[in-house]
Amino acid sequence: MIAQKNRIQSVFEKRKDGDKIMSLFLTAGFPDLESTVDLVLGFEQNGADMIELGMPFSDPLADGPTIQYASNEAIKAGITMDKIFEMVKEIRLQSEIPIVLMGYINPVFRYGVEKFCIRAEECGVDGLIIPDAPIEESGLLSEHAEKAGLSMIFLVAPNTSSERMKLIDQRSSGFVYCVSVTGVTGARDGEEVAQSVQKFISRVRENVQKNPSLVGFGIKNHTDAKKISSDLDGFIVGSALVENIRENYPENGWKQKLFSFVKELKFGNI
Questions:
Q1: What is the pLDDT of residues 139-170, one digit of tens each?
Q2: Taking the chain, what is the end-to-end CA distance rounded to the nearest angstrom?
Q3: Same domain, yes or no: 149 and 160
Q4: Domain-embedded: residue 240
Q5: Which residues constitute the domain of residue 33?
């Protein structure tokens, strides 16, 4: 087995020149508890380079309606932190794809920070993204994550100052997550959005030097992914996957439709 703390690093080192890393976000336990492991393995077979596994929380205020829906459905289905860890263990029997847990700090505190980090490492988790624990408030978590060999991944946004970007880059390990409140919404103000995104990405290139950067902007197709990530190391897709599942689950063939969509995101229509 690859030394766990190197999986994220390895995926960036192994990619060929010009290739973009595709990281996919999936809420653990959505659309049902039985599907998560299969979906992760299917995502990998269809081009995913990394998985962000969402830890559902009963009060997901920072999420958009799509991820909130997935979170609520997973909670209704009976997801728990221990079940998430068991899912990761099961994935690890068949795959070395990097897995990052993403969610709110509250469930981590409830579980116990040290216990959470130790258990995550034992199951084969590679890193953590906790958006409501900025660098100033993540001391305890960062300390235990580092002890366990887990990467701590922090976020930058268009309103993040250049100085703060540099600081976040220094404190992050694995990669830096670039997120935008504006997204890549349609043609109404498309030109304006494209320009503001471009400005933001230029600042990321300038200030994030230590880590690779992945960008999540409401990417819905291969064209979006290619355009938005052209100057960075890769892209992240989440809501579009949930929407695909909502459209097709539980009809026959819903997984295959999802996997075809994943392949199209990575490779385009081939």
A1: 999 999 999 999 999 999 999 999 999 999 99
A2: 33
A3: no
A4: yes
A5: 20-153+233-263
